[in-house]
What does this fold into?
Amino acid sequence: MRKLMMFMVAALWWIPAQATVIAADRPAEYLPLLADKNVALVVNQTSRVGDQHLVDFLLENDVNVVKVLAPEHGFRGDAGAGETINDAVDTRTGLPILSIYGKTKKPSAEMLAGVDTIIFDIQDVGARFYTYISTMHYVMEAAAEQGLAMIVLDRPNPNGAYVDGPVLDLEFQSFVGMHEIPLLHGMTVGELALMIKGEGWIKAADELALTVVPVSDYQRDEAYTLPVAPSPNLPNAQAIQLYPSLCLFEATAVSIGRGTEFPFQVMGHDEVPLGEFRFTPRSLPQSAPTPKLQDQQLSGIDLRDSDLRGFDLSLLLEAHQAFKEAGVTFFTAPDFMDKLSGTDKLRKAIEAGHSEAEIRASWQTALTQFKQRRAPYLLYP
It folds into this structure.
């Protein structure tokens, strides 16, 4: 182990000064914590150390990895949104893969039997409804209750420059929104883990032995392009940037491109023309088996070259107005809209015809309070 450690530290000498280095690429910071430990990993396809998967890297470095806990989209990231993840065995390593997305979202004592330390290393995209942070919540709680150490290997937030949207009302708490944070929270998963523990948002929070390995030389407002797609329907940087604004359309009649080569980069409908761009959602087994408005030609907007960033409300307001004028139901899943929003106030304000300025003004006080509340947990400027 010591020889390997010396080699890996030396191998990083060529990285230019001030280059951002993700936590997984800083093995000297976490390998010593894993000596003689039985380790469980919460990982997916984004959990890379250079060109290697974290699982393979740890095994090569004599870490006793005993099992993998698979979140939404699965260990290899090839399952569609909401698709149940089943227990399996990794054909490459022979490790058991236990699902924590489906019936079981919180690892049970039986699932964690024989484990000393849990590592969480998953790339997030900075939106409250992206479920990897909900998975992290449940894993942290299980670790706290069962007396296990937990290590979070931090990664940059590609939407880290933005803090916007309504702060979650706990009345609308769900797996797509578990914490009293805004839709765009501007934090990394490491910072969120510190806040979840520090604010007592999990049971037995004070008992959790939590270590966050930070990203080196990182600023939250710097551009960061993800080297691996974080989920099947966020295939590129543009989709990741548009995701916070377009995800709310999941609760409406509007397609946002699932079932196409450009999910979360277009929007359209078959009856209410939202623009002149034409596209047709098809069944794509690996990403959208049964997409909304499947096999229908839709008219809408192509956002692949859009410079829209952060949380944009104008598209939602304009689409709602177009549906209202056409007499077609816009919010086809109002309860889901409220869960995604973290409140029913946004939907009701849109239905009441409030302006974007009025809606934005309604959450500014809560955003200011959130920024003050999160301040002790921030690791980066």
